[in-house]
């Protein structure tokens, strides 16, 4: 335990549920690489949480969204060998969002962009084998309307 080094990641994410499908991205980097993840990401300087999720969803999916409500915050700890860190502590703020315009598009590539594109996926096609913990928590929230409290720890995690 004394040799463990934790990278703290903070992000804001949109849960967009329409026609019995969840809007997800194909993740191109980080510990969730090659898995489905929620659209969202890190705050830019001077940006509010709602502004962040609107910008991130637009950049990663092509959709202009309306932020509906704050669902809450969840955190996840999992092993990740990155830049001398042994683990990531991912703190995620969840919002429900709805589509206000735009269309699915291939995201523009720039430093920090880790979306390889977005798609709509049925809950039954999502599992921890192909999706991030954030997606699985969103699916749980869609089923129960409960986000839960307490950290979700993964003793083992495979970056695909």
TrEMBL record:
Keywords assigned: Hydrolase
Keyword Hydrolase on entry: yes
One Pfam family cited in the UniProt record for this chain: NUDIX
Domain spans labelled Nudix hydrolase: 5-160
Hydrolase is among the record's keywords: yes
Matches recorded under Gene3D superfamilies: Nucleoside Triphosphate Pyrophosphohydrolase
Domain of life: Bacteria
Listed InterPro entries: Nudix_hydrolase, NUDIX_hydrolase-like_dom_sf, NUDIX_hydrolase_CS, NUDIX_hydrolase_dom
SUPFAM superfamilies linked: Nudix (SSF55811)
Family: Belongs to the Nudix hydrolase family.
Protein name: ADP-ribose pyrophosphatase YjhB (NUDIX family)
Organism listed in the record: Lederbergia wuyishanensis
